[in-house]
Design goal:
CATH architecture: Alpha-Beta Complex
Strand content: 5-15%
Helix content: 40-55%
Number of domains: 1
Radius of gyration: 18 Å
Shape: globular
Order of helices and strands: EEEHEHEHHHEHHHHHHH
Structural class: alpha/beta
Number of strands: 6
Strand order of the largest sheet: 1-2-3-6-4-5
CATH class: Alpha Beta
CATH superfamily: Protein tyrosine phosphatase superfamily
Oligomer: single chain
Amino acid sequence: MYRPQWIDLDGVVNMRDLGGLPTESGELVQPRRLLRSDNLQDLSPEAIDTLVTRFGVSDVVDLRTHVELAKEGDGPLRAVVHVRHHHHTLYREDSVESGIPAAERALPWETDERREAAAAAAQASAAGGRADDEHRRSHEQFWSEHYLSYLATRPDSVVAALDAIASSEGAAIVHCAAGKDRTGTVVGLALKVVGVPDDLVIADYAASAERVPAIMARLRSSTAYAANLQDKTVAQQSPTTDTMRLLLQTLDERHGGAIGWLGTQGWTAADTDRLRRKLLGD
């Protein structure tokens, strides 16, 4: 049975250690190797000290966009000289070379959300009395396809993020803004590469739903995200098991699984061994 290993620190609300998850071969993901989190911007000095000294954090894999970084500035972990930072945006249209300054641009996913809302409204109208069920399926299908778009449009970033985890000297933290969508995709792939079964990958992904009210309250206090979240509900922002199940199912059907997809991007058996040694080694 999956039990989230929450890390409750001042400045984050959705951080956990992936240690303890078993693989299909009976090995265990070791503690203090891979952490996942929401935005690290608000970490207190005491929280940073805990991450560095108790958890041995050596690397931060930041999946936020250039727009988010420009709007929020450098986080406090940037001041820790021996912690390496890896920035890998998962949005194709997110570029430092745009003619519009990043801090003045809209968040890249806002267009996708408008498309989801329009599609859900159309399906609900056509479904009549089955509107709630149709909307739920539409929501899960949309987010599953959204995660697949990360792989389709920014495979370089996905592979680089996994490489950063495998190459980290100590614990690696993977994070985005909420720590559930972009983070959930990259962490889910990492867990699949080392052999964690689907049901536990799905359970870990869905565990963030427990923290969504706190995540939304926290992000609404930031000028970078407040407007985007103004009309959002907890239900709309909560991850569901079926979303990750659809993603894993699609990877199996189209590519023979996560490792099969990574193989199309230059990921090798040696890379898999590196990640396995990192997450599973004694």
